[in-house]
UniProtKB/TrEMBL annotation:
<keyword id="KW-0028">Amino-acid biosynthesis</keyword>
<dbReference type="GO" id="GO:0005737">
    <property type="term" value="C:cytoplasm"/>
</dbReference>
<keyword id="KW-0479">Metal-binding</keyword>
<dbReference type="InterPro" id="IPR013709">
    <property type="entry name" value="2-isopropylmalate_synth_dimer"/>
</dbReference>
<feature type="binding site">
    <location>
        <position position="255"/>
    </location>
    <ligand>
        <name>Mg(2+)</name>
    </ligand>
</feature>
<dbReference type="GO" id="GO:0003852">
    <property type="term" value="F:2-isopropylmalate synthase activity"/>
</dbReference>
<dbReference type="InterPro" id="IPR054692">
    <property type="entry name" value="LeuA-like_post-cat"/>
</dbReference>
<protein>
    <recommendedName>
        <fullName>2-isopropylmalate synthase</fullName>
        <ecNumber>2.3.3.13</ecNumber>
    </recommendedName>
</protein>
<feature type="binding site">
    <location>
        <position position="253"/>
    </location>
    <ligand>
        <name>Mg(2+)</name>
    </ligand>
</feature>
<dbReference type="Pfam" id="PF22615">
    <property type="entry name" value="IPMS_D2"/>
</dbReference>
<dbReference type="InterPro" id="IPR013785">
    <property type="entry name" value="Aldolase_TIM"/>
</dbReference>
<dbReference type="GO" id="GO:0009098">
    <property type="term" value="P:L-leucine biosynthetic process"/>
</dbReference>
<feature type="domain" description="Pyruvate carboxyltransferase">
    <location>
        <begin position="37"/>
        <end position="314"/>
    </location>
</feature>
<dbReference type="Pfam" id="PF08502">
    <property type="entry name" value="LeuA_dimer"/>
</dbReference>
<dbReference type="GO" id="GO:0000287">
    <property type="term" value="F:magnesium ion binding"/>
</dbReference>
<dbReference type="Pfam" id="PF00682">
    <property type="entry name" value="HMGL-like"/>
</dbReference>
<comment type="pathway">
    <text>Amino-acid biosynthesis; L-leucine biosynthesis; L-leucine from 3-methyl-2-oxobutanoate: step 1/4.</text>
</comment>
């Protein structure tokens, strides 16, 4: 077949390609993530530095408290040397005895400049557990353009910065602070692997990690530059070549420039990373940091405990929106307004069948649905696990089919429509959505349903209304039925006989000129207990029409008579 694509007119000659790693014996593709990594939230640093309007102290505190409540144990709380706001915030949480739980380590970022390092370490006085995080760029364009130095010059910045952090920590922090150190060769993604390794080794030679003295080496995709697979190769390569690996916490810090930060983080974990740095909902520079919520929920959805509490995801979102003054996209994984909602017919059909099958399976096994494996098509997780209801799982518009509409009636009104009745009613809804466009709400669906099938006692429509009925069965099993009714506005008594109340009623209706035959009949209870209502569905041939009727009543015979009346009146409508 001819290729009909056209070459674009965009200037592709401007861009180079990322380096691939010579790692034919890579092992990460076989790996599985079976436990949660260490998480570090950098919402208050990398997230905050990317806001048009950085967080006020109150917003910072709300974010910090949220992160603690969710269960993050490592939180980068700012860049204290950036100015008074960050410095004061760090001081405020250290000085508030209730702010930082004993098992939470705060960390702060600094450039490798002595005045900034001194101010940074100073901000941590009195902290129980604190990490200083030092960075300098190591990639070629930064060496040439930003630092205007050789490889050795750049390595020396990292070494000197590490030494200064150690000296100031020694000088300014007492024994009360459990002190930790983290180093990031910034733009690791563009740095030659052997040079990134050389710098990290030089930093370690200075810091001297060992038993009880961990170093965190954080390898940032400051700008995401390659496929996640090459990023993973780079992690596997570094993990293999780093000395003192058992004293190194290897950390991944993806940004989302190519839209693959989540995959980059996951593949890096498969390739040996121990820790992930990111922000809630992917806040951060440019396209954002990797989204910690998606990563955590991806684990959860595979039955791996993320060790972070996402059970009230909307509360997390509300606090996040307040702190960042931004909105979460309606399609954002796990949290967006629309991510548990289906509009389209085939999705809705499958979802309804999935819920029904789960219920049936649980019933058959004598357990609750929470005890069996989640298997609802199109819903990767149970929305209830993150505090959502099933209300919005199905929304109906012109793309919807019978399954979705039936789901709404079952979920909201306990009416389990027979399949052919679903088809009949969905055509009525389809005609409405096609004519009016847009979405039809569950309330409007119910209004249409009542108007179509369930005459309102205050505003009865149709030829026939029935009041009380009485039936007797003789020794031969023949039912005789007497019903008080209104036919064409006139009160009358209808009498008929047959081999059951429905056929007796058909017989009685013959007397007022209604020719009706039974095609299908189904009923179910709508609730448990003494006041339980029953729903009866009846499919009839009335003259040359085939249609359904429904009746709802505490008494099943009355429900079935009402269903017949519903069908007969619809035929005459
Ligand atoms: C990828 C990241 O997210 S890195 C974190 C970035 N975050 C931030 O920068 C937020 C907070 N930063 C700030 O508020 C300011 O940058 C400050 C207050 C820290 C410093 O401000 P300034 O002193 O005006 O310096 P500025 O930020 O412009 O830095 C540029 C200078 O620092 C040098 N520099 C940049 N990064 C580093 C580093 N990591 N280590 C050492 N020097 C560095 C540059 O080469 C440049 O030096 P030059 O002036 O000799 O050319
Ligand atoms: C400071 C470093 C770790 C950073 O945020 C980045 O490189 O993206
Ligand atoms: Mg970053």
């Amino acid at each position: 077949m001819a290729n009909r694509q056209q070459p674009s007119s965009m200037p592709i000659q401007k861009y180079g390609r990322y380096e691939q790693v010579d790692l034919a014996d890579r092992t990460w593709p076989q790996a599985r993530i079976t436990t949660a990594p260490r998480w570090l939230s950098t919402d208050l640093r990398d997230g905050n530095q990317a806001l048009i309007d950085p967080m006020s102290p109150a917003r910072k505190r709300a974010m910090f408290d949220l992160l603690v409540k969710m269960g993050y144990k490592e939180i980068e709380v700012g860049f204290p040397a950036s100015g008074q706001t960050d410095f004061d915030f760090v001081r405020s949480i250290i000085e508030d005895p209730d702010a930082i739980p004993d098992d939470v380590t705060i960390s702060v970022l600094t450039q490798a400049r002595e005045d900034l390092i001194e101010r940074t370490v100073e901000s941590l006085k009195g902290a129980r557990r604190a990490t200083v995080h030092l960075y300098n760029a190591t990639a070629p364009v930064f060496r040439r353009v930003v630092f205007r130095g050789s490889k050795d010059d750049i390595k020396q910045i990292a070494v000197d910065g590490t030494r200064l952090v150690m000296e100031y920590a020694e000088k300014l922090l007492g024994d009360e602070t459990e002190f930790g150190y983290q180093y990031s060769p910034e733009i690791f993604t563009d740095t030659e692997l052997d040079f990134a390794l050389e710098v990290c080794e030089a930093v370690m030679d200075t810091y001297r990690p060992g038993p009880g003295r961990e170093i965190i080496l954080n390898l940032p995709a400051t700008v995401e530059r390659s496929t996640p697979s090459t990023h993973a190769d780079r992690f596997e390569w570094m993990g293999r070549h780093l000395s003192r690996r058992e004293h190194v916490c290897l950390s991944v810090h993806p940004h989302n420039d190519r839209g693959t930060a989540v995959a980059a983080a996951e593949l890096a974990l498969m390739a040996g990373a121990d820790r992930v740095e990111g922000c809630l909902f992917g806040q951060g520079e440019r396209t954002g940091n990797v989204d910690l919520v998606t990563l955590g929920m991806n684990l959860f959805s595979q039955g791996v405990d993320p060790q972070i509490d996402f059970s009230d995801i909307d509360e997390i979102r509300r606090t996040w929106e307040y702190c960042n003054q931004m909105e979460v996209h309606p399609r954002h994984p796990y949290v967006g307004d629309l991510v548990y909602t289906s509009f389209s017919g085939s999705h809705q059909d499958a979802i309804k069948k999935g819920f029904d099958a789960m219920e049936a399976d649980a019933k058959a096994r004598g357990v609750t649905v929470d005890d069996i494996e989640w298997a609802v098509p199109y819903l990767p997780i149970d929305p209830k696990d993150v505090g959502r209801s099933y209300e919005a799982v199905i929304r109906v518009n012109s793309q919807s089919g019978k399954g979705g509409i039936a789901y709404v009636l079952k979920n909201d009104h306990k009416l389990d429509l027979p399949r052919r009745m679903q088809i009949e009613f969905s055509k009525i809804i389809q005609a409405k959505t096609d004519a009016e466009g847009g979405e039809i709400t569950p309330t409007a669906i119910w209004d249409v349903f009542q108007d179509e099938y369930l005459p309102n006692p205050d505003n009865p429509w149709g030829r026939i209304q029935v009041a009380n009925g009485q039936s007797t069965t003789d020794r031969d099993g023949v039912d005789t039925l007497t019903v008080e009714a209104t036919v064409d506005g006139e009160r009358t008594t209808l009498t008929g006989s047959g081999n059951g109340p429905i056929s007796a009623f058909f017989d009685a209706l013959g007397a007022v000129g209604v020719d009706v035959r039974l095609l299908d009949y189904q009923e179910h209870t709508m609730s448990e207990g003494a006041s339980a209502q029953a729903a009866s569905y009846i499919e009839c041939a009335i003259g040359d029409k085939v249609l359904w009727g429904i009746g709802i009543d505490a008494n099943t015979t009355r429900a079935s008579l009402k269903a017949v009346v519903s069908a007969v009146n619809r035929a005459a409508r």
